[in-house]
Amino acid sequence: MELLRSHLSRVRIPEPTNRIYKTECCISFDTPRSEGGLYVDLSSFIAFGKEGVGWNYEKSGNPVYLHIQQRPKPVPEDRPLKKPTLLAIGVDGGFDHEETEYEETYSIVMLPDYMSLPFPSVELPEKVRLAVNAILIAEGAKCNEQLASWTAEKKKVSAYAMNLQQINTGVVVPPYGWKCCKCDKSDNLWLNLTDGMILCGRRNWDGSGGNNHATEHYEETRYPLAVKLGTITADLEGADVFSYPEDVTVEDPLLAEHLEFFGIDFSSLQKTEMTTTEKELDQNMNFDWNRIQESGQQVEPLFGPGYTGLVNLGNSCYMASIMQVVFTTRAFISRYYEHQSLKMAFLMAPSDPTVDLNAQLTKLAHGLLSGKYSFPVQEKQEGIPLHMFKTIIAANHREFSSMRQQDALEFFLYFLDQVERGNAGKPELDPSRSFKFIIEERLQCPSGKVAYNKRSDYILSLTIPLHKATNGEQLEAFDKLKAEKKLEGKDIARGEIVRPRVPLEACLDCFSAPEEVHDFYSSALNAKTTAIKTAGLSTFPDYLVLHMQKFVLEEGWVPKKLDVYIDVPDVIDITHMRSKGLQPGEELLPETGPCEVEPTHFVASEDIVSKLAAMGFNYVHCQKAAINTANAGVEEAMTWLLSHMNDSDIDDPISQNPHTMELQSVDEASVETLISFGFQEGVAKKALKASGGDIEKATDWIFNHPEASSSVDTELTSSGVQADDPAVPDGSGRYKLMALVSHIGTSTQCGHYVAHVYKDGRWVIFNDNKVGASIDPPKDMGYLYFFSRIDG
């Protein structure tokens, strides 16, 4: 006790603003449940495992620690397994919701001799007791996060429910024997709560479901609410009520009265139909879900070094799938595992290693590759969590730091950009460069003169030419079958569905194919014209990542996922895609001319200005909004206007020339994000101005306005980027498929991601914390394909 009293000056009582770590080691994945437990530094409030606590004592000299140990309580072997009823992971009613109970014990430990004192104890100094109690009652740096990977939100009360007008048409709904009023459908039926019409629901993407008669009825009448027949029971909270104007499942507090209006005694009804949420759950267990996750297969669980799963933190599968693939590459293994120990990373880190990217990447590498945390627990592994890694990697990114699902591609690019920044000035250590390559674009205008532009990228994004499908006859037969089934009012069976099969080679050909660029300003002709653009690769990366553009935006910014298979061979050769640069006899377009000025000046669209002015906005303000969004549209101009209403210069005259004005600056962080995607700085700025600063819309704007890139291309020559830059690898154009990341769901902002990796001579599935020997890897269903170069 006297020794402890002599160290009281090194003990601090945590304040509310202090970050407290008590559930996970800062440099390993040890927890209170690990052998040896966890040690919380009573000065810094950072936690360490049994090995790390000694390093911390050497580095900081802090001698007093709270030792937390958790041991499992006995679990009855006959505990029944529950069928999931909620589309979620880690929540009550969801998948794998089995929590082991633990008994927690505490003690005070003093280094270097690991002298231990029991806690609680009245004999301990008051300062120690106050410090420990404050730590134990604190919420901790790792807050209680919402663990739901893809759960539906709680239903909201419909704005139309309380004042719903019901029409007495004499309709009395019987308790059974329902049928659509416009076809022969007897399932998936909806009762309109205004006029009592019974109509079939929406048609699904695969041809199943209804014939859209309920939706068409709403479009004709605007009667807002409908309840799904077959979901009504004495428990009205389980009934499925849909609001068409709100386009979401809602709660109707007056549902009992609304049903009684049509003579429905809900207390006597039995449930016969699935609700929308249940149907969504069922669809997520259908073919795609089962195929990608290999559900129903006797997948052999794998354990040991390189076979460690990652805990789903709630919509973190996009991050987990990417990190599993990244840490199978030689570059990342060498940088953060083989050539950097945990102790080295800890000693190099600042006083708080939780905010050091190098330390957290080393921690993750050792966690995944050492095998220390990959062992069976009730015939499966628990996996390791990405809490600290996610906190540091997403610290400055609003979306990745949230609990929402994200695009795995966007995260991959952002991650590599952060790694590159973390290794700035040390290109020889930077593992992200193993993915980097140079794309060269060639533009030729009718004058015969050319322009070359080079840019670096980490991924090759490929459009999918559906017209190149190899199973055209089967698709025609399927379309014919769908038409026949529709006339008969029948659904397409899952076994009858036929999807286009497109060869990967056709997607690669699309990338290299000549493309017309309209309204291209030629400095040789001093006029706008149509140019021909082709693209190739100046360098071939160590690891080639192919992004399949399965997600497209339809009219109105509505995302749609292409339902298609991609036939991907195990080995590809893209040698023919290597660009050749400026050829003998070719003449570059002049670097000077009106093109240098024209792209940065815009004339306000009178159509946009007049529409905004009609809404009551100041006319000059409307002009500025149109100009600063490059006349992208009324919506973009209004977004800009609303965010700049309080600008000090909003009332200043536009310029001496009332028709032109140079575009204002944009957020540099957004510019850097677009540059990390591989776009030029000038194009990135122009796109952000045209889209009101929205990165997603700016990206789409670039793809839809190739002339923007072209105007910048004329200012560049083949000397813009050095192809022999030592930071960019180069080699053979032959590659072998090493991994793929697949996506289940209707958009990148929802659903689930799974990784398949070829290692140790077999395919392995990484599905969050589940790791197993893959039996049937879904090579034709990938979203991202990773290839490793075949040397020699």
TrEMBL record:
Q: Which residues bind Zn(2+)?
A: C180, C183, C200, H213
Instruction: Name the keywords, alphabetized.
Output: Hydrolase, Metal-binding, Protease, Repeat, Thiol protease, Ubl conjugation pathway, Zinc, Zinc-finger
Q: Locate the USP domain: which residues?
A: 308-790
Q: Which residues form the active site?
A: C317, H752
> Mind telling me which PROSITE patterns this protein's record contains?
UBA, USP_1, USP_2, USP_3, ZF_UBP
Q: Which intervals hold domain UBP-type?
A: 156-266
Q: Which GO terms describe its biological process?
A: protein deubiquitination; proteolysis
Looking up InterPro entries in the UniProt record yields:
Papain-like_cys_pep_sf, Peptidase_C19_UCH, Ub_carboxyl-term_hydrolase, UBA, UBA-like_sf, Ubiquitinyl_hydrolase, UBP13_Znf-UBP_var, USP
Q: Which GO terms describe its molecular function?
A: cysteine-type deubiquitinase activity; zinc ion binding
Report if keyword Lipid biosynthesis is assigned: no
Q: Which reaction does it catalyse?
A: Thiol-dependent hydrolysis of ester, thioester, amide, peptide and isopeptide bonds formed by the C-terminal Gly of ubiquitin (a 76-residue protein attached to proteins as an intracellular targeting signal)
Enzyme Commission designation: 3.4.19.12
Which domain of life does the UniProt lineage start with?
Eukaryota
Identify the residues that the record assigns to the UBA domain, covering every copy.
603-644, 665-705
Coiled-coil intervals, chain numbering: none
Q: Does the keyword Plastid apply?
A: no
Its annotated function is as follows: Recognizes and hydrolyzes the peptide bond at the C-terminal Gly of ubiquitin. Involved in the processing of poly-ubiquitin precursors as well as that of ubiquitinated proteins.
Q: Which family does it belong to?
A: Belongs to the peptidase C19 family.
Report what the protein is called.
Answer: Ubiquitin carboxyl-terminal hydrolase
